[in-house]
């Protein structure tokens, strides 16, 4: 049962991202009955970690997260950054345990959808099952495109594409696509793009010198969007 009675899928401003298919009021009520709206997750706190048993899927209401896997030596590989409206936890569906860790980059709020109940409910609401499949497919496609970028693009292309796509994702949330805060560290950004932190810093400086962007600590302003797009092409 929801722990926040004043919040529901019907009045959530980002529900169209995690639930873009139109559900009836009765279907939304059924979903609200199983959703657990958890307490705030603080910066650097983990939502789940490698080896944890699958308990549910998580829809991000506010804040940002990063996901990473690690090898036997404890070296991390960042696999994704997640924004409000994203649904995470699909990585555990196959083996019912999480192969990686997801950690808050800032104070965040999530809605937990218990998996066992969700599985039953999705059989009652065909459009909900369709949405889960759609989200899984979108995540797979995004990861494939990222892998292609990592293997085939230059360092400058990788960073330019990331800035453009990050802005696009913010625009989907009715936020500015050209003025935004990067919540991740440059180390994490470089790790995700397959670049050293020195390369990330050098390229950001070059983009700024070219007057494509301005940078104030973590705050980015895209001045010449077309130049970044042209570089990615």
TrEMBL record:
Keyword list, A-Z: DNA-binding, Transcription, Transcription regulation
A UniProt-annotated Pfam family: cNMP_binding
GO molecular function, one term: DNA-binding transcription factor activity
Keyword Acyltransferase annotated: no
CC per GO annotation: cytosol
Domain Cyclic nucleotide-binding, chain residue ranges per copy: 19-99
S-adenosyl-L-methionine found in the keyword field: no
Start and end residues of each HTH crp-type domain: 153-226
Entry-linked NCBIfam families: PRK11161.1
Protein name: Fumarate/nitrate reduction transcriptional regulator Fnr
Organism of derivation: Thalassotalea litorea
């Amino acid at each position: 049962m929801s722990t926040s009675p004043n919040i529901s899928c019907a009045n959530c401003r980002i529900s169209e991202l995690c639930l873009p298919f139109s559900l009836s009021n009765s279907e939304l009520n059924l979903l609200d009955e199983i959703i657990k709206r958890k307490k705030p997750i603080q910066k650097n706190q983990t939502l789940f970690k490698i080896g944890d048993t699958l308990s549910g899927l998580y829809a991000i209401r506010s804040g940002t997260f990063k996901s990473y896997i690690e090898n036997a030596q404890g070296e991390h590989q960042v696999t994704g950054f997640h924004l409000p409206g994203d649904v995470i936890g699909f990585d555990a569906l196959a083996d019912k345990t999480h192969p990686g860790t997801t950690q808050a980059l800032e104070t965040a709020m999530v809605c937990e959808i218990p998996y066992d109940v969700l599985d039953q409910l999705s059989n009652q609401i065909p459009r909900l099952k369709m949405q889960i499949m759609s989200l899984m497919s979108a995540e797979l496609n995004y990861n494939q495109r990222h892998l292609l970028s990592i293997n085939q693009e230059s360092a400058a292309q990788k960073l330019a594409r990331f800035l453009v796509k990050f802005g696009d994702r913010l625009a989907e949330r009715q936020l500015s696509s050209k003025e935004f805060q990067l919540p991740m560290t440059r180390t994490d950004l470089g790790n995700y793009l397959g670049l050293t932190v020195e390369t990330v810093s050098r390229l950001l400086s070059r983009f700024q010198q070219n007057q494509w962007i301005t940078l104030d600590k973590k705050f980015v302003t895209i001045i010449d969007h077309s130049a970044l797009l042209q570089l990615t092409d």
